[in-house]
From TrEMBL:
The keyword Cell inner membrane does not apply. This is NAD(P)-dependent oxidoreductase. GO terms for molecular function: oxidoreductase activity. Belongs to the NAD(P)-dependent epimerase/dehydratase family. Keywords: NAD, Oxidoreductase. It holds the Pfam family Epimerase.
Length: 266
């Protein structure tokens, strides 16, 4: 299975750099895009620098692509005025371009921050109510709803990946639960790109960690089985001092995001 041309947005970012090599086998041509500078195009690559908030540029970016892995956007809590450009207008521009040019499938990097205000320890699934923990989480929640609309109205399939914490290693106790290894991330994206019938799916992105707060039974059709576990890092993580249990960062699934801001932008 291979696409003719696959688009990867956010290619200059942490996960974009990881997936740049790992998605290569899935397409004849991998088109890479970001607002930031990327390393020059290698064999089988195209590099297009563009701002997701620029509708015309995004329209041209998507033309010719059969599928999209959408990682581009602001990835942390920021003032609404910034989030609205990159994440809200950005995801709208992307789906409009997909509709206009006939791209059939999107893997959308949503986030655990759409459910960040659920208490730690509570088990959630795809149908649990969303409780975004900030403007960033709200923008991902919008992206999930927007992609649902483009599926219902136009049949564009999307997997919304509610990624936990995808870094080389978990950095704290919370990430022992939310960690998603790069290998498991790659396998999750592969499953979403190639499952015969994707539909519109919500799937949590975490490795096979000893403790988890999310379950993916409603996304079983993807055939995703994580292989890694954060357990190998436990001694290192637990050598750090624990947060005060009254700290909201220790109480809610979104961790420190729940206490970011407010931002004074007036
Ligand atoms: P990152 O911040 O390293 O990468 C995001 C990329 O998007 C950056 O290279 C940035 O330049 C680009 N970008 C920002 N604004 C843009 C704009 N207006 N137009 C075009 N490009 C723009 O983030 P990371 O960690 O690589 O995450 C990738 C995606 O996955 C993001 O959408 C993030 O929200 C999501 N995610 C990541 C998690 C993680 O643990 N790494 C967890 C949950 C979600
Ligand atoms: C996210 O959504 C962020 O993009 C990432 O930088 C991490 O902070 C992650 O969530 C997390 O919750 O650990």
């Amino acid at each position: 299975d291979k696409f003719g041309r696959l688009l990867l947005t956010g290619a200059a970012g942490g996960l974009g750099k990881v997936l740049r090599d790992r998605l290569k086998p899935f397409a004849d041509v991998l088109r890479l895009s970001d607002i930031a500078q990327m390393s020059p195009a290698g064999r089988g690559e195209e590099v297009v620098r563009c701002d997701l908030a620029d509708k015309k540029a995004v329209d041209a970016l998507v033309q010719g692509c059969e599928a999209i892995v959408h990682l581009g956007g602001i990835s942390v809590e920021r003032p609404f005025e910034e989030i609205v450009e990159a994440n809200i207008k950005g995801v709208f521009n992307l789906y409009e371009a997909a509709r206009r040019h006939g791209a059939r499938r999107v893997v959308f990097a949503s986030s655990n921050h759409v459910i960040g205000f659920h208490p730690q320890g509570e088990m959630l699934d795809a149908d649990s109510p969303r409780r975004p923990d900030g403007y960033y989480g709200l923008s991902k929640s919008f992206g999930e709803d927007l992609s649902r609309f483009y599926f219902d109205r136009y049949g564009i399939e999307t997997a919304c990946l509610r990624i936990g914490s995808s870094f080389p290693e978990p950095k704290d106790r919370r990430m022992m639960v939310t960690w998603l290894s790069y290998a498991d991330l790659t396998e999750l994206v592969r499953c979403c790109l190639f499952t015969p019938k994707l539909g519109h799916a919500i799937v949590y992105g975490m490795s096979a960690n000893r403790t988890v707060w999310w379950e993916n039974s409603k996304a079983a059709h993807l055939g995703f089985t994580p292989r890694d576990s954060s357990e190998q890092f436990r001694a290192k993580v637990e050598a750090q001092p624990a947060l005060d249990p009254s700290d909201p960062a220790a109480q809610y699934q979104g961790g420190a995001f729940v206490k970011a801001g407010p931002f004074e932008t007036l």
